[in-house]
Design a protein that fits this description.
The protein is of the alpha+beta class and about 180 residues long. It contains four helices and eleven strands. A hairpin with a 4-residue loop joins strand 10 and strand 11. About 30% of the residues are buried.
Length: about 180
């Protein structure tokens, strides 16, 4: 019995040492109420790395919609009332990088993903202060994102995407990444 306990302690110590020597990006902690789906890799989920935040205020929100023109960015109450899929994950904006969030999908398939940085904390998108992003990372410009910019194909398991936040900027205001 003592040998088994000693072996278990050695294995735990080796695992801790290996984790400590990993690069910081490899140690990213997956955040959000759906985090277990990405860590355990059960079901279907999307692991989203968010880059380019203007600051660390407010909260981050992932929203997953059906991949149709009619349903993308539609009010969640309407989608639910119509019996359609909708999922949202919200977390306080982490104070440091990397930022990795997870959102569950009901099954493998195509979905539309939208990320917002609610900087003012009012839980309503404010075009003048808040940021937004889509998986294609195409510049959003002056109009709402197109469905084609937001499409993610989710396998059985975990899809991984990186989304760069965009904010209103410029002499003729349009959405784009900070620093470009």
């Amino acid at each position: 019995m003592e040998g088994t306990e000693a072996m278990a302690r050695m294995i735990l110590a080796a695992a801790a040492l290996a984790a400590a020597s990993m690069p910081l990006a490899a140690q990213a902690r997956v955040l959000g109420s759906d985090a277990a789906s990405c860590v355990q890799r059960d079901g279907s989920a999307i692991e989203v790395t968010i880059q380019g935040l203007k600051d660390r205020t407010g909260s981050l929100k992932l929203e997953l919609y059906p991949a149709t023109e009619e349903d993308f960015l539609k009010d969640d109450r309407d989608l639910i009332k119509e019996g359609k899929f909708f999922r949202r994950v919200r977390v306080p904006t982490p104070s440091a990088d990397p930022i990795t969030l997870c959102i569950k999908a009901p099954a493998p398939g195509r979905y539309a993903l939208f990320v917002t940085h609610d900087r003012d904390g009012k839980n309503k998108f404010n075009v003048w202060t808040d940021g937004a992003g889509v998986p294609s990372n195409e510049r959003l410009g002056r109009s709402k994102p197109k469905l084609s910019q937001a499409i993610v194909t989710v396998p059985r398991g975990v899809a991984r995407v990186t989304v760069r936040a965009q904010y209103l900027r410029g002499v003729i205001p349009s959405f784009g990444p900070v620093g470009r």
